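User: I've been trying to design a sequence by hand for this structure and keep getting stuck. Would you show me what you'd pick, starting by listing the structure so we're on the same page?

Assistant: Good idea, let's start from the same input. This is the structure you sent:
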């Protein structure tokens, strides 16, 4: 079992060091981050689990980049959130990307697994 897991991990392409060079994830239909989804992030900040400076105008904008490995069949094989000093929000964003991508990525017959960048933007007014 362990050998199988190591073999599968070895087959994954390496995550590029420069995330800015990653192409945006090719959603068929662009997902929408609703106020309810942003509410989780607002609650994490209010609870003190994340250190985000309060904006002068009270309008919060929190961006999380998520490197996403997409298979030729349009499924997500792996997500890796960029650190923003808030692990719960980072993992939340990675989970959202996986959900947003389900059934919403084009098939790329004959293509190899490739890394893309998804950016989730949470916004709300305090």
């Amino acid at each position: 079992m362990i050998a199988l897991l190591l073999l599968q991990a070895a087959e994954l392409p390496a995550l590029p060091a420069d995330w800015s060079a990653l192409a945006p994830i090719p959603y068929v239909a662009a997902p929408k981050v609703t106020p309810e989804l942003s509410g989780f992030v607002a609650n994490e900040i209010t609870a003190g689990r994340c250190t985000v400076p309060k904006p002068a105008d009270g309008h919060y904008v929190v961006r999380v980049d998520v490197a996403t490995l997409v298979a030729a069949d349009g499924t997500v094989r792996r997500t890796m959130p960029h650190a923003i000093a808030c692990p719960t929000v980072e993992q939340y964003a990675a989970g959202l990307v996986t959900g947003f991508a389900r059934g919403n990525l084009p098939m790329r017959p004959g293509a190899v697994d490739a890394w893309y960048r998804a950016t989730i933007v949470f916004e709300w007014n305090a």
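That's my pick for every position. To get oriented when you compare it with your attempt: Helices lie at 2-11, 35-46, 87-101. The beta strands are 23-24, 59-70, 76-81, 114-125.
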